[in-house]
Structures are given as C-alpha cells and as structure tokens.
Amino acid sequence: MNHTTTTTTTNNATTAPASKPGSPGKPASAVSHPLQAAARVPRLGKWRVLIWGLFALALIVLPKLFTSGLALTMLSQMGYLIIICLSYNILLGQGGMLSFGHAVYVGLGAFIAIHVLNRVGAGAFFVPVSLIPLVGGFAGAFFAALFGYVTTKKAGTTFAMITLGIGELVAAMSLMFPEFFGGEGGISTDRVVGEPFLGISFGPSIQMYYLIAAYCFVCTVLMFAFTRTPLGRMLNAVRDNPERVEFIGYNTQRVRYFSFIISGFFAGIGGGLMVMHFEIITAMDSLSALRSGAYLLFTFLGGATLFFGPIIGAVLMVFATILLSELTQAWMLYLGLVFLFMVMFAPGGVAGIIMLNVRVMQFRRFGPLLLPYVALFVALTLAFVGVAALIEMVYHLQMNAVMSTRFQFMGQTLDVASRTHWVAVAGWAVLASALFEWVRRGFVRRWHRQQELIEADIRQRHERGTA
Hints:
By secondary structure, the chain is mainly α. Helix content is about 75%, strand content about 5%.
C-alpha cells in the first residue's frame, strides 16, 4: 500500500478521528457544538456484539486448543501486552502523542504492585490477589498524573523529547534506589498468598491465564468505550486540529492530560499482570527506553489508526520476542527491516491493510486484485529468502565461523568460506528485490485503478440518492 490509500483507513476506522470543524459538507451545528454530536453514542449493533462475543470466546477457548506450557505462556503474555499496547495507542493513535517513555508507567505500576503483593504475603494487610493489577493501575495513574502535568504542556516533537527524558531519568534513578527497585537482580514474589478461594490460588498457570484474560477483556471494552466518550472524541480533535479546538474554547492541554492519566492507569494494570505472571521484575527490563520503543514499534506495526491494531501488534510482539528470537540471532535486525518496510509501503499497519481490503471487498472490486496479490506475495517471498540468506551468512561469518563455516538455512547448506555461495546468495537477493519492486509498482497501478472505480461507484450512489 502507499500513503495515498491510508486516508480511507483512517476514515473507516473504529476509532476514526472526529471530523474537523468547518469541513465541507458538515452542518454548522456540528462545528459549533462538537461535544453534542460526540455524546450521541450509537447503540450496540449486532455486529459489534458478535465481534465482542468472538473475542471473549477466543480468550476462553484458546488455552483449550493450545495446551502446552509454551503456548499458555505466550497466551498470557499476549493478554497483558494487549492492555499495554492499547493503553499506548490512547496516546499515539487517539491523541497523536508520540511517547518514548510509556514503559515508565508500566514499570512503576509493576513495582508498586509487586511490593504490595509481598506485603500482603507477609501479613501486613490484606488485598485480594485478583485485585493486585488494579493496585498497579492506580500507581500508573498516579505517576502519569505526576509526570503528565509537565509532559502534556507541550505537543509534537517537544512532547516526545520530554517523555524520552523522563524515561531515561526514571531508568537512571532505578540504580540509585536498590531498596525499591531491587538493583540488578530485581524483586521476586510469590503470587500464591493465603488460602485458596473456591480452589483458586493462582498458582497454576491456567488460573493465572484466565485472570489475565478477564482483565484483558474488561480493559479492552473500557478503552473502546473511552474512544466513544466526549473526552475521547475531543482527543481526536486535539490530534487533528488543536488550534480550532482552542478557538472554540477547549483547553487542549487538559484534554491531553486527562487522557494521559487514563493511559497510565491501563498501562499500570498491564504491569501488575506482568509481575504476577513472571513473579519477578527488574528495572533494566521494565523501565528502559528499549522497552518503550518495543511498545511503540509493535503498536505501529499492528496499526495505530484502528482500535484493534494494537491487539495485532501485541500478538506480533510475543511471536517476535519468543519464537523469532529462537530461530535466528538476527531477529532484531529483521524487526527493524519489517518496521522500515511497513513505514514505506503500509503506514496504516497490518490493521490498515485489512481494512483497506475489506473496503475493496465491500464494493466487489477485489477480483481484479487477486492475481496481482498472488504475484506480489511470491515476489516478496523470493526477495525475503534472498535477503534473509545474506543476513544469516553475515551473522554466521561474524559469530560462528570459528566453529564451522557451514550452516543450515531452510534445508540448504551454506558455506561462508565459499565465494560461489556469496555470489549466488547476493545475486538472488538483488534480482528478487528488483522483481519485487517491479511487481509492486504494477500492483500499485492496479490498486489505484480499483480505488478510482470505487470512488466512481460512490458518486453514482450519491447521484441516485439525490435524484
């Protein structure tokens, strides 16, 4: 895809931005009273009920289908990462606030939660274990209120730089207070506290998963509901046209600030679930800029312009950090290349690609694109194989060539000491990449043609409706 097609994605998104005041074709009342229109929340349609029902059913059924310990661990991580990525998208997708310090609120919420859990285990006071993630949520909201009062006074690049500075400040302070942050070893805990209630102790992984799944579903519903509130709609307006929002009398800093606190609350819940799942936390892993960058990267890859995009991003994050890291030492390089590829060709993320094609299918224009899609997929696969083989040869030469110059790649033996192998792999990568670019340009031409036909269909429907 390209930049010219992402407008459709944004306009058809579940979390589509509020129309700018003064847009052509909008009545004057919508300009004068934007919150009145936003307050008229539509009823819960049957399709929306079906989607939420399928989401809940998936959370219940998946551990029954994938019963291994690894699968249960991955599902649990997906659960709390969905909450974290959705909370980050309140800032990035809903408010246009590029934050480089979201791990601060996840991590500090997690540290407060683990300290409270340890105190509960020591008998200092009583808090149900199932409510410990809420403790992390309130801690995240507190620190978001504290730091957000400063960061939300600015927007754009200045906001991003302030969040980066605060993130680095908190990460550096974690080494200065080992009593609270646990130093390099971190802090450990035991989530089994007190007597089991109805046989539930949260000791078994399956019980912990269903606690995470319950929080995941409820928090997802609440964050979706936030996008339908007047504050959520006004946050869209602040993102799109802050000058117009100020002109009609609203305080843009206050809108950003309240949204920042809400984002911190849900981030803290995700952090609380994270420490309950792993029963250990370290500052270097949970508060670093690298962790904040991961939330940004996968939220963008999933699709920040759509509500369900960060859900896809969270799933991709788990697969990348667990499965891809086991397959290759160069997994972070692959992530960087994928991110670059998505920024260049599909800035709407995976969710944006899905919704663009759903729109094409709705207008029954997908048929002419089927063969171009097949050709694009084949060319992309060939290019990926060539580039991946070249990357793996370079990594093997730098790290493992002392032990052996040969290694296995997709069932084939490659030798980094062979000039023939280097020439063959490099030639494959170059030729396949050139083939992909040629196929991509042809696909783009056909895609634009179908978009023109869709626009013509829309005009014809409008003319028939007004006739």
